[in-house]
Amino acid sequence: MADPALHQTRPIKEIAIDYTPEACNHCSDSNSITLTYDHRGGARWRSTTRFLYGTFSSLIQCPKGNTSGLNFNIYLSSLEGDKSQDEIDFEFLGKDKTLVQTNYYTTGTGNREEIHDLGFDSSDGFHEYVIKWGPDLIEWLIDEKVVRREERKDGERFPDKAMFLYSSIWDASYIANGGWTGPYVGCDAPYVCLYKDIHVPAGTALDCSCDS
């Protein structure tokens, strides 16, 4: 990512809430977002614009307690629910908060998962998670350390659709019969995932009138 413009960021100003708005709290003044999972289910927020490349970051403190079965995350997607989406992920698997999964999709095809040992419990405090995405390179960083780097290979597709920044908390225990995130236990609900100091690219938004 030689283009310095891809590293310029700004605080996120507005978000859209896709479902359960009462379980999502956004304070633009403090640049913080709270997502809660409880009897209402979870919630998902996203940026109000798509971006074509750039650097995305947030400080995140994952929910405390027994979070088995839950997925909490921060990721890019050209459109959630579109079967031909491009996507770049950080996903926390509730069964073990010392791990995080990275992945990316091109035209709906993923299967590029990698599991990373964080070296800490993601619920113990805030840590910085960064996605740097360019035409030929993706980097995932945690606390300023590159944990994964993917370069475009000749003849292979690479994420090139404009993408929203998303985040959600949801019950994923039905996937692989609990093999992915564990069975849902729920003994410590409500589960609260905290985001702060959220930044998006400064100059690569495509629908600038929606998030200005």
Automatic annotation (TrEMBL):
InterPro entries cross-referenced by the UniProt entry: Beta-glucanase-like, Beta-glucanase/XTH, Beta_glucanase, ConA-like_dom_sf
Pfam families to which the protein is assigned, alphabetical: Glyco_hydro_16
Active site (catalytic residues): E87, E91
GO molecular function, one term: hydrolase activity, hydrolyzing O-glycosyl compounds
Signal peptide, first to last residue: none
This protein's record includes keyword Hydrolase: yes
Protein keywords: Glycosidase, Hydrolase
UniProt cross-references to PROSITE patterns, sorted A to Z: GH16_2
Domain GH16, chain residue ranges per copy: 3-200
GO BP term, pick one: carbohydrate metabolic process
Name this protein carries in UniProt: GH16 domain-containing protein
Organism: Acer yangbiense
